């Protein structure tokens, strides 16, 4: 596609800025014309054109009152209004006066603003060297430390100028700086406009992936309602370029058609030319030559084209190239001749003959070269078609290979993940086995220690009986101690069995249990021992209390708690009670014994172990009872609470026992 190196994007933006410049240049120190006949600083462009004489009087009034800044603002708005309506020469005179006034007042920000307007004026007239010179002045003015972090459009202008002078790589540098600044200030309109301008540079350089990414980035930026019409023109024209360059002619055509009825040649001739030439190129690429030809003719016959040297030659060359592509060589030559004739009428007479000869030579060379090129074009097309088929085959094979490789990688990854899970499980089981082995060793130690005392007592009793030296009273006493030792061994073995089962995990069987009959039957075993110590046992549990739990686990817990209560109580009472709630109940054992220290309670709650302490009648401790209790509490989902005071007794409460649904 023979792109026209136009300033259409930023041309529209700048013309729009002339109407809204106070919104962008927040640092501008403007004053109203309250002391003049009219407020020319706030008039629309159309009113300024009608009131130039009055505005010039305001300019003179400000100068007489030594207000050079306001005087400069007046001539600036006059110049911008004239430029807006196409009076470039008059606009330049006013803008130069304003620039000199700003320089005299040392207002770098406002001088940069007006220098940018002068640069845009030169660029519109095709005088790029002058435009670059003015814009470099504007950039230098705002790059002082106090203004360096301010918002301005000059980097974007510089990128557009460098693009027009074919310095595409350098234009990308300035576009990038502009994007960073607009993003920092969250200026969506200029950010999006710069994205579209920058896309054109990427397209010319053939960097289509970067151009596509930039278009997608621009699509995610939302601009306010007043700017949407302008952004739509930029978006669709840029998309048209992109799709054409990437051989997506239908999409390119649709993009240009979306804004074809929104381009006004009287407002911005650049957009009008680009959209129609873009449509013509798309139609030509799609083989719709009649429609393409009519669009080329419509642009050429537009009266504004013959007055614009900037677009003239490129439009005619584009049309001539199209005619050559469809074999209309004679008509192509006529079009080039027509372009030469029109351009001759616009250039100085001394240069006409040289330019005519140059174009004639170019035309002859183009015609002969085109005839030679056509002979080889068909062969090249056939070669590239064969190459394309081969490339497609290679791509398909590559995709299949990549898919297979991906599946293998996924299988290996999945296998490694499963192995890692298995290793974690094995490591966890190994730690559990180590803990079980440690507990087994500890259990053997405890068992050996606790069985030693009762068995030695029985041995002494038997040896004494064998000696035959006992009186009747001593024999009865020894028999009582022997019975106590046997009972102690029995209890130890029961606790040992319970502890082993709870450590390995109970097979729990939850059922509805009447609490009072269960505990009443269990207490018969301990009443004689309690009676021997002068202890009263009270069972204060209502007959209708029914809980849902494991019977064996509950019996083991209550047996250990009651044994400890009797063991550490010399006289007094042991009371088993319950506090029934709505859904749960508490069961407690309260004694009037010797109580426990705070450290002992904390140790019991933490790991079920505490320093062994003899009972009130010298009963020895086994060390594993409370550990079993805590394990079983966890198993059946209840909590154990201990309250005690030295010399005042201990209360052990089982909480969160679930009441039966039938209760």
What is shown here, in short?
The protein is α+β, with helices and mostly antiparallel strands and 663 residues long. The protein has 24 helices and seven strands.
Structure characteristics:
single chain, 663 residues, alpha+beta, Heat Shock Protein 90, two-stranded antiparallel ribbon, 69% helix
- Per the CATH scheme, the topology name of the domain at 505-658 is Heat Shock Protein 90
CATH superfamily of the domain at 505-658: Histidine kinase-like ATPase, C-terminal domain
Cα radius of gyration in angstroms: 51 Å
Name of the CATH class of the domain at 505-658: Alpha Beta
Query: Cα distance, first to last residue?
Result: 90 Å
* Main sheet strand line-up: 2-4-5-7-6
User: What would you call the structural class?
Assistant: alpha+beta
The general outline is elongated
How many E-type strands?
Answer: 7
Assign the CATH architecture of the domain at 505-658.
Answer: 2-Layer Sandwich
Helix content: 55-70%
User: What proportion of the residues form beta strands (DSSP E)?
Assistant: 5-15%
The overall average pLDDT, rounded, is: 77
Stretches where pLDDT is under 50 for at least 5 consecutive residues are 1-34
The main sheet comes to:
5 strands, mixed
Number of helices: 24
């Amino acid at each position: 596609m023979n792109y026209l190196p136009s300033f259409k994007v930023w041309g529209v933006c700048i013309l729009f800025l002339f109407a809204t410049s106070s919104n962008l240049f927040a640092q501008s120190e403007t004053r109203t014309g309250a002391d003049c006949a009219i407020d020319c600083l706030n008039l629309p462009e159309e009113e300024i054109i009608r009131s130039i004489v009055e505005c010039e009087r305001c300019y003179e009034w400000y100068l007489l009152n030594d207000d050079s800044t306001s005087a400069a603002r007046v001539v600036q708005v006059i110049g911008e209004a004239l430029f807006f309506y196409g009076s470039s020469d008059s606009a330049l005179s006013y803008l130069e006066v304003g620039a000199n006034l700003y320089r005299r007042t040392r207002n770098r920000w406002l001088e940069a603003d007006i220098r940018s307007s002068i640069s845009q004026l030169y660029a519109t007239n095709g005088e790029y060297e002058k435009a670059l010179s003015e814009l470099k002045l504007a950039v230098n003015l705002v790059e002082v430390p106090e203004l360096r972090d301010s918002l301005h459009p000059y980097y974007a202008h510089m990128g557009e100028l460098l693009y027009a002078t074919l310095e595409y790589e350098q234009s990308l540098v300035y576009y990038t700086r502009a994007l960073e600044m607009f993003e920092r200030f969250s200026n969506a309109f200029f950010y999006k406009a710069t994205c579209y301008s920058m896309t054109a540079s990427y397209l010319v350089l053939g960097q289509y992936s970067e151009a596509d990414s930039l278009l997608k980035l621009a699509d995610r930026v939302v601009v306010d309602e007043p700017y949407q019409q302008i952004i739509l023109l930029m978006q669709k024209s840029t998309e048209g370029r992109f799709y054409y360059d990437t051989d997506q002619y239908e999409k390119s055509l649709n993009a240009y058609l979306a804004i074809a009825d929104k381009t006004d040649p009287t407002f911005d001739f650049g957009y009008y030319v680009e959209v129609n030439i873009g449509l013509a190129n798309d139609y030509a690429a799609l083989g719709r030559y009649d429609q393409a030809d009519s669009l080329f003719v419509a642009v050429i016959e537009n009266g504004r084209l013959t007055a614009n040297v900037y677009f003239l030659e490129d439009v005619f060359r584009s049309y001539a190239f199209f005619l050559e592509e469809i074999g209309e060589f004679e008509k192509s030559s006529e079009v080039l001749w027509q372009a030469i004739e029109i351009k001759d009428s616009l250039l100085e007479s001394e240069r006409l003959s040289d330019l005519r000869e140059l174009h004639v030579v170019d035309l002859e060379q183009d015609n002969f070269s085109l005839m030679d090129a056509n002979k080889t074009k068909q062969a090249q097309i056939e070669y590239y078609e064969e190459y394309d088929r081969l490339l497609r085959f290679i791509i398909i094979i590559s995709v299949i290979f990549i898919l297979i490789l991906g599946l293998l990688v996924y299988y290996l990854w999945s296998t490694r993940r499963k192995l890692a899970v298995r290793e974690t499980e094995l490591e966890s089981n190994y730690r559990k086995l180590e803990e079980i082995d440690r507990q087994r060793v500890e259990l053997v130690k405890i068992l050996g220690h606790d069985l030693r005392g009762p068995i030695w007592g029985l041995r002494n009793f038997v040896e004494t009986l064998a000696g035959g030296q006992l009186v009747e009273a001593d024999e009865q006493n020894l028999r009582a101690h022997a019975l106590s030792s046997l009972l102690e061994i029995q209890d130890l073995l029961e606790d040992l069995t319970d502890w082993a089962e709870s450590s390995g995990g109970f097979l729990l069987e939850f059922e509805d249990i009447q609490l009072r009959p269960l505990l009443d039957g269990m207490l018969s075993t301990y009443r004689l021992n309690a009676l021997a110590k002068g202890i009263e046992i009270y069972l204060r549990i209502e007959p209708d209390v029914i809980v849902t739990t494991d019977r064996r686990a509950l019996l083991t817990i209550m047996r250990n708690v009651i044994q400890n209560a009797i063991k550490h109580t010399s006289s007094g009472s042991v009371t088993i009670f319950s506090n029934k709630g709505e859904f749960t109940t508490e069961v407690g054992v309260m004694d009037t014994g010797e109580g426990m220290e705070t450290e002992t309670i904390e140790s019991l709650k933490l790991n079920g172990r505490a320093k062994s302490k003899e009972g009130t009648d010298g009963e020895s401790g086994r060390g594993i009872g409370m550990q079993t209790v805590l394990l079983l509490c966890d198993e059946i989902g209840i909590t154990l609470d201990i309250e005690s005071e030295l010399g005042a007794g201990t209360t052990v409460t089982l909480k969160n026992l679930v009441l039966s649904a039938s209760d």
